[in-house]
Design a protein that fits this description.
Blueprint: H1 3-83, H2 107-124, H3 132-141, H4 144-148, H5 153-166, H6 168-173, H7 184-191, H8 199-202, H9 212-275, H10 284-305, H11 317-330
Length: 332
C-alpha cells in the first residue's frame, strides 16, 4: 500500500477521533450544565418548603404568645382583682374542681401572676410598639419567667422584645437575616436538631474545571451534596412542624382553660357582691366556684410556666406532659 494512502488514513482517523472527543466534550459540558441546574432547583425547592414550615411555626408561636398575653391581661388580672379582696379563704375542705385540685396556687403564685399580668398589660398597651411581633414569638416559645426575667417592667420588656433578634431559633422563625445580625435560614436550621445547613449555600457556587470531564465530575459531586443538603432541610422542616403542632396544642389548651375560667370569675364576683369579702359567708356553691377558679388559675400558670422550646430550639418533654395532663382532666 502506498505511503501517502497510509498517512491519509491515519490523518482521517485522527480527525475522526478529534471530532469524537469534541462531541463527547460537548455532551459532557451539557450534562454538567444540566446536572448543576437540577442541583440548584432541588435546593431551591427544599428551601421553599422549609420556608413555608418556618413561617407556619413562627405564626403558631406568635399566636400562642398573643393568647398568653390576652389571658394574663384580661382574665387573670380580673381574677386577681377579686380574689385578693377575699378574707378567711380556706379551700382544703371545699369541693372545688377535683380534677385540677393539684394546680391550686398559693399567695406567692398569686403575686407572680399579678406581676405577669402587669407586664402583659403594659406590653399590650403599646409600650414596646413595633417590637411586639418578636416579643410574641418569644413569649410563645418560652416560659413567662424565661421571657420576662425578674427585672423592672422596662428592662423585662426590653429583654422580651430583643429575644427574637438574639436567639438563633427565634431569628429563624422570624426570618432573621444575616444582614440583620441573625443567623438566617442556615443558622436557624443548624439550631433545629443540630443540623449543618451551610452546604446549602456552598452548593450554589459550582467549581468549573478546565476540562469538560472534570466539570461533569464536579457537577455530579454537587448533585450528591445538594441531595444531602435537601435531606437536612427536610429534617429541619419536620422539626418546624413539630413545634407548630406543640404551639397549637398549648393555644387550644389555653382557650379551653379560659372558657372555664371566665364564668367562675363571674361567680366569685357575684358572691362578693352578694355577701361581701368574707369567704365563710359564701354558700357551698359559691365556695365551690372559688375553689374551681383557683384551680383553673393554677392550671393556667402551669401552662405559662412551661416552655415549648429549649434555648437551642428543641421541643421540651415537659411541654407535652403538662399539656396532656391538663387536657385529660378538663376533658374528662
Amino acid at each position: 500500500m502506498p505511503i501517502p494512502i497510509i498517512l491519509g488514513g491515519i490523518a482521517a482517523g485522527t480527525a475522526a477521533l478529534g471530532i469524537g472527543k469534541g462531541i463527547k466534550a460537548g455532551v459532557d459540558m451539557k450534562d454538567a450544565k444540566d446536572t448543576n441546574k437540577y442541583a440548584k432547583r432541588i435546593i431551591a425547592d427544599a428551601k421553599k418548603d422549609l420556608d413555608k414550615c418556618r413561617k407556619a411555626s413562627g405564626t403558631a408561636l406568635e399566636n400562642l404568645g398573643s393568647k398568653k398575653l390576652q389571658v394574663l391581661d384580661k382574665s387573670m388580672n380580673r381574677f386577681i382583682a377579686s380574689f385578693e379582696q377575699l378574707k378567711n379563704v380556706e379551700l382544703t375542705e371545699s369541693v372545688g374542681l377535683d380534677e385540677l385540685a393539684k394546680f391550686r396556687i398559693d399567695k406567692q403564685s398569686i403575686t407572680k401572676l399579678k406581676e405577669l399580668g402587669s407586664y402583659a398589660t403594659s406590653i399590650l398597651g403599646g409600650t414596646v410598639a413595633g417590637a411586639l411581633g418578636g416579643a410574641l414569638t418569644a413569649f410563645g416559645a418560652y416560659s413567662a419567667a424565661m421571657t420576662f426575667a425578674t427585672a423592672s417592667t422596662g428592662t423585662a420588656i426590653a429583654t422580651l422584645s430583643g429575644a427574637a433578634a438574639t436567639n438563633a431559633t427565634l431569628a429563624f422563625f422570624g426570618g432573621g437575616s444575616l444582614a440583620a445580625g441573625g443567623l438566617g435560614m442556615a443558622g436557624g436550621a443548624a439550631v433545629l436538631g443540630g443540623l449543618v445547613a451551610g452546604p446549602a449555600l456552598a452548593v450554589m457556587g459550582f467549581v468549573i474545571g478546565a476540562k469538560a470531564s472534570a466539570q461533569k465530575d464536579d457537577a455530579y459531586a454537587n448533585l450528591a451534596q445538594a441531595r444531602q443538603t435537601c435531606e437536612e432541610l427536610e429534617t429541619a422542616g419536620v422539626a418546624c412542624n413539630g413545634i407548630r403542632r406543640r404551639a397549637y396544642m398549648f393555644f387550644r389548651l389555653l382557650v379551653k382553660l379560659d372558657a372555664l375560667f371566665v364564668p367562675l370569675i363571674f361567680s366569685m364576683e357575684q358572691a362578693i357582691q352578694n355577701h361581701g369579702t368574707d369567704f365563710r359567708s359564701f354558700s357551698d356553691n359559691e365556695k365551690h366556684a372559688v375553689a374551681g377558679v383557683v384551680s383553673i388559675a393554677g392550671a393556667i400558670k402551669a401552662v405559662l410556666d412551661t416552655p415549648i422550646l429549649t434555648e437551642d430550639g428543641k421541643l421540651t418533654e415537659e411541654s407535652v406532659a403538662i399539656a396532656e395532663d391538663i387536657s385529660s382532666k378538663i376533658c374528662s
